[in-house]
Structures are given as C-alpha cells and as structure tokens.
Specification:
With about 425 residues, this protein is of the alpha/beta class. It folds into two domains: about 5-155, Cytidine Deaminase, domain 2 (3-Layer(aba) Sandwich), CATH 3.40.140; about 165-420, NAD(P)-binding Rossmann-like Domain (Rossmann fold). It has helices at about 15-20, 85-90, 100-105, 130-135, 175, 190-200, 230-245, 260-270, 280-290, 325-330, 360-380, and strands at about 10, 25-35, 40-50, 50-55, 70-80, 120-125, 140-145, 150-155, 180-185, 205-210, 250, 270-275, 295-305, 310-315, 395, 415-420. It has an eight-stranded mixed sheet with strand order 11-10-9-12-13-14-15-16, sandwiched between helices. Strand 12, helix 9 and strand 13 form a beta-alpha-beta unit. The termini are far apart. The chain binds zinc ion (ZN). Zinc ion binds near residues 322, 325 and 424.
C-alpha cells in the first residue's frame, strides 16, 4: 500500500470520461496503463456495454499519457451513494485518513474486492450542484482500493477546452484572435516575443528572418537542438504550431533591408510590426515602412553588451516622432546615440551586442516588447483603458554599468524607466509627407 506521499495520480482523457458517462451500465471494467516513474495511471479501455471494452482515444499531443505498461485492472461505478464525490473531496483534505474496506463497501455498493493487490476505482456522480462544483467537487473521483483500506486519489480530466480559449471571459482572447503582428527578427528576443504574443492569444504572426538556427543559437533561444540547421522562421513556425495550435504563423525567410520591396505589402496586412532584429538598418527600415503604412511599431533590443534593454513604441501620430527623431533628440540632449552607430564611426554609441546578454534577460525584453505590442492593440484599437502604458520608450536595467548619461543611467537591475517620445522633427523624411 503506498503512503500518502507516493499516492498515484489518475489521468482521464475526455474520451474516457465520455465513455463512462454515456454507458447504459451503472458500473464496468476499466483498464489502465501505469507509468511507474510518474506514478501515473492512464485510463486505456472502458467497458461500455456488457463485455464490450472500448479503446480510449488519447490525443497525440499528450505524449506522457502514452507512457506506461498496460493491464492494470480497475472499475468504474456510477452514483454508488449520494455525495460520494463530496466525501472524496473532504477525504483528500485529510491526508492519512483511509476508510476500512468493509465500511467503504457499504458506501460504494458493487466495489470489487481487490484481492491481494490494490485496485483502482473511479466513481462517477453526474448532476453535481453548482455549489458542489464551486467548492471543487468533480463528477469523477479516483480511489485506491486495498483490502486494508481505501484512499482517495487525485484524478484529472481533460477539459472540454485546452488552449488559449481557457482564458475566455478573463482576457480578450476573442479580440486578439482577430489581430496580427509582423515579427521582424526571430532570434533570442524575437523568439521570446513570438511565444509571448502567442500566449496572449494573438491570432496571426508573420515571421520575418533570413537566417538559419545554428548551434551557437541554442543557448539563448526558445528553440532547442531539434531546430539546428533549419531556417529560424520555419523552425519557429513549427514550434508555435505545436505549442499554440490556435495561432496562425507564417514564415518569410527574407531580409527586411534587402527584401524590403517584397515585404512592404505585408505591412498593410498586419496590425502592428514588432522588430527584434539586430543592427541599425533593419530597425530604421521598420521605423520607416511602418510609419508609411500608418501602423504602430515596437522595437526591442539590448544595448551595451547586455547592460540595458530597450523597448520603443512608435505610433504613426503627429504627437510622436520616428526612431530617427528619437535618436536625434537624444543626441541633441547630449545622451549617447543608442542606435549604435559604430558602423558610421561615431564610436560614442551604445552598442547592440545581444550575444553577451544572458538568456533570461533577452526573454525578459522579448516578453516586454510583446506586452507593449498587445497593450497597444488593445488600447488603440479597442479602447481598453486597462492596457495603457506609462510611456512610449522603456529603458530596462539588466546589468547596469553606471557609465551612461540620461536616460540610460539606470541604477538597478530590473528597473524600468518609461519616457515619452519627442514630436517629429521638421522635415523628417519618415515622419513628413510622403
Ligand atoms: Zn521622424
């Protein structure tokens, strides 16, 4: 007999639960598979009519429910006595309490004697009241039956809805399912942003990146060794489709700078552009093309060898300028030009060197960028006041080195400084009339 700490757990897929609840019999056989390393029982066949044992469907994605060795005998019983599943709930909260078999047999008529081994019993009590459900009682309850006593065990049933729709009613999943984001740059920050966009319920993502996923990427990326050698966009699409099947992901193995003419039409077909690409040119192209397409853009990067993170929201309104307007404003204020103009020989810029940032810092910035993107969609397109942000420009302390002037002079790791953006410069080629 197992102790309470080693009690097994029972997994019932939706199909198994339906086979039991729709059976015309009031009790029947069950066969379980058992995975000893997980102490997990999985219902495998259900007797639905006398001597008719039906194989249970286990959806492919629940890989661990395919483990284990078969032929563990069990039984199901419907409505053996009033409130049996409420008893189960109460007993679960009193670890160590077990019911003598003879007493249990009076409560649950028809329970089979387990013989020398222990048996698994599932009681089914349809028609629970709303109050019973609210306190956590379930239609199905699991019991470990041994001649020396009976213990309640935890049982989990595959819910009707698995996935982002589980959040319906608490988060605007329906609204977000109708929106789309172009994600430019599918590296470590972009991969984390993609996960966060999907996890927020965004309906469609257009992935843009010309590069392959290589061995050196594995340490920082949401993708792992299984993706080495593939194009990042294709591997990330596969990953998202597996993890977030409700979302629609499209792959574009293109370079936002060299293939701008091919990607330009895509700006019109999305609601927002999130740029997590390394380097100066891709960010400038996104800033320019998004403004021209009258779409908001969110730019995310880490600066100065991973000391700081930065997320910029660019909105196509006369109130706020573009990326170049922001950078020029910072230069005018005497701040360093964070556009990393090392390529131009300035030498004073903060450099884009994401390779030195640790993986969680990159994911933090990617997740923040996705939050900014989702909040922008909800606030600007749906007037959701709960999604207002404190500003347009976030500087984030990751590993602050205290060498920079404002606004990059953060004191603390984890600190986020929000600022506004300057208005467009006169004669800005991006912000001005086309
Ligand atoms: Zn501008």
């Amino acid at each position: 007999m197992p102790t309470d700490r080693t009690l097994p757990h029972v997994a019932l897929t939706r199909d198994a639960a339906e086979k039991i609840s729709s059976s015309p019999m009031t009790s029947g056989d069950l066969v379980f598979r058992f995975a000893p390393s997980e102490r997990l029982y999985i219902a495998e066949t259900v007797e639905t009519k006398p001597d008719l044992r039906m194989q249970v469907t286990i959806p492919r994605e629940f890989t661990a429910l395919r483990w284990g060795d078969s032929d563990h005998h069990g039984q199901w019983i419907r409505d053996p006595s009033p409130d049996i599943n409420l008893h189960h709930l109460i007993l679960l909260q009193r670890p160590g309490v077990r019911l003598p078999f003879d007493a249990f047999r009076k409560l649950v008529r028809g329970v089979e004697h387990p013989g020398r081994n222990h048996g698994l019993l599932i009681t089914h009590e349809p028609g629970l009241t709303e109050d019973e459900r609210l306190i956590g009682a379930s239609e199905f309850a699991g019991w470990l039956v041994h001649r020396s006593g009976v213990l309640p065990i935890r049982l989990d049933i595959e819910p009707e809805v698995v996935g982002i729709q589980q959040l319906a009613g608490r988060w605007p999943v329906e609204l977000l399912a109708g929106h789309s984001v172009m994600l430019v740059g599918c590296g470590s920050i972009g991969g984390a942003a993609a996960e966060a966009l999907a996890g927020s319920g965004l309906g469609r993502v257009e992935l843009v990146d010309p590069d392959r996923f290589l061995w050196h990427n594995t340490i920082r990326h949401v993708l792992g060794p299984e993706s080495v050698g593939r194009r990042k966009v294709d591997a990330l699409k596969s990953h998202l489709e597996r993890r977030w099947p409700d979302q629609n992901a499209n792959a574009h193995p293109l370079d936002i700078v060299e293939d701008a003419h091919l990607l330009r039409p895509l700006f019109d077909r999305v609601d927002l552009v999130l740029c997590a690409a390394d380097g100066i040119a891709p960010r400038r192209v996104v800033s320019h093309l998004a403004r021209r397409a009258a779409k908001p853009a969110v730019l995310a990067c880490v600066l100065d060898s991973g000391a700081l993170g930065e997320v910029i929201r660019l909105r196509p309104t006369p109130r706020f300028g573009c990326l170049l307007c922001l950078r020029q404003d910072l230069v005018d204020q005497g701040a360093m030009d964070a556009e990393a103009d090392q390529e131009l020989g300035y030498g004073a810029g903060l450099s884009h060197l994401p390779m030195t940032a640790v993986p969680p810092d990159l994911r933090y910035i990617g997740t923040l960028a996705a939050k900014v993107a989702v909040a922008t969609l909800l606030e600007s397109l749906h007037g959701d006041r709960t999604q207002r942000l404190p500003g347009e420009h976030a500087v984030v302390g990751l590993n602050p080195v205290h060498e920079h002037g404002p606004p990059f002079n953060l004191e603390h790791a984890g600190e986020i400084r929000w600022r506004s953006l300057p208005p467009p410069r006169p004669a800005c080629p991006t912000c001005g009339p086309a």
